[in-house]
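Protein modeling request. Please complete all fields; requests missing the sequence field cannot be processed.
Requester role: graduate student
Desired output: 3D structure, token encoding
Chains: 1
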Amino acid sequence: MSSPLPQLSVTAAPPGGAAAAPPAAEPPRHRHAPVAPTGRALLALSLGALGVVYGDIGTSPLYALKECFNGPHGVAPSPANVLGILSLVFWSMTFVVTGKYLSFVMQADNRGEGGILALLALVGRRKLSRRGRRFLLLLGIFGAALLYGDGVITPAISVLSAVEGLQVAAPGLHHLVVPITVVILFLLFLIQKRGTATVGAVFGPVMLLWFAAIAAAGLHGIVRDPGVFRALSPFPALEFFARHRGHGYLVLGAVVLVLTGGEALYADMGHFGRRPIRFAWFGVAMPALLLNYFGQGAVLLRDPSVAANPFYMLVPGWALYPMIGVATAATIVASQALISGAFSLTNQAVQLGYSPRVTIRHTSRTEYGQIYVPEVNWAVGVACIALVLGFKTSGALAAAYGIAVTGTMTITTLLFHRVMRDRWRWPLWTAAPLTAAFLSADLSFFGANLVKFEDGGWFPIALAAGVFTLMSTWRAGRDVLARQLRESGLPLDLFLPDLEKHPPHRIPGTAVFMTSNPEGVPPVMLHHLKHNKVLHERVLLVSILTEEVPAVAPAERVSVRSLGNGVYQVIGRYGFMEIPDVPALLASLPPWTIAGPRLDRVSMDTTYYLGRETLLSTGTSRMAAWRKRLFIVMARNAQTASSFFGLPPNRVVELGAQIQL
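Delivered output (661 residues):
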């Protein structure tokens, strides 16, 4: 498609999406972690996983147990309730994190990558009915939308809960908690444009220090009451439900906070690999978390009055201020990981055709995945600060937290079921019980959180609904636009013979026409011939196809076919986690594939032709009028195609056209 608008199918020129890397610099290469690292490599990757993967779940002790006793549906901190909740914490972490994600879901990788969009692309390869594929598509889009809610709430609740330690250390400073949190969040989002390379180098060590600190604090509490280990049995949890019944079920809405970040285990798999993530979990994260939760429980058994903030009451007085400092650093790391995750998710959505082009800047020339998306950064930043100012306490924010997490967990289970059935060819009698077991936990937590809708749970639902509307509208609009262009286009097999019979005047140089349809003539090329009556000596019809894989191997990157009369068809293939750079792609072509001088990315003999369509909502497509208008607004505000494809602005020619949707 010769247009600043995106490609119109997953296997067509990308939807625009992002400003590609500047022409002067090569884009970073995709690098997968070793398949089975050992020794120092395993330790290094595991340390990195602590900082990126476990930041969210690692900071949950700051607020999770507190909400079980102080939240909207909290219970009294009696010995039986403390042991019951600790038992729920232990078995929830064991079943959901260790069992579901580490043992099963992480096996469903898309060429080494994980995450809900990677999973959606994976199940989308199988032949499904139109209705079934549409259902999975909408399900995956909504799951991705929920992840944005998680990315907004996590920095707010994490940093706020850490700073709330000041209220324990110096009650007179409680009025400074919100302002200090706002300042920290503002600075955090302000430095995003500088990239995460420098900060990322300390992610792992900071989180290692954090896990060591909370483990030591937990041991300090457990030594005083080792009887807390009775909660390792499932019976205290069963007795808790038997005693509280319906109210006990609602407490799951707070217990689920110990699982926040579980989805990150899967989403970040491509950066570290399965083995380092598992090694970091079993070797550091899980033992430290359990020690701290059980330490908090031991303190509650001795003194129920500390339920207002059992995490900081667990810490000895001399270590309170250092712990506040370490907690603040750890929550900044956790927030950074979620912010970077939002950038990565946006890039995937753009490449897969669920989002219009946005500005994507690489912040590192060597490290894959280090990108900065200004639009997403400031949207998330403003939302985070607004949440802190609106909710004011981590307890109030906790009500808004669980719905996004449990909703994403449920959707992951449903998509994973399709992987078991379609990709792994498991029989129904094998896949169904496992899916039912996972859904029983996911839906239990989700249902317990729904009752908190009025207390703040509406926020992630509203945010997800808004993002879902934008993503689904963009997808539907692209489909309509693709159909319009196909119907108005001219097949190559009709155009090429006519070009040979009635050759136009040829001028020196190379013309590059971008097209989303490899089988058709770019509309901008037809307009160029109609109005200018000339054609360059060498013409390249370039199509950029987005494959449903994270990255395409270099050997499969590009193919070239001569169509005769100096016309060549060039097809470049990219994965949904890569960003196209057309000048670099053309410069990489072997000299024997195209006659004439080598295509240098800085050569002034090459002109790039794009179309600039003006979209009108007066067409006869079945899209609702409001969705047409929304799609048009999104298209007008999308990043330009020249930026997305990395084209030099001083060598781009745009020709206009009107299209009725």
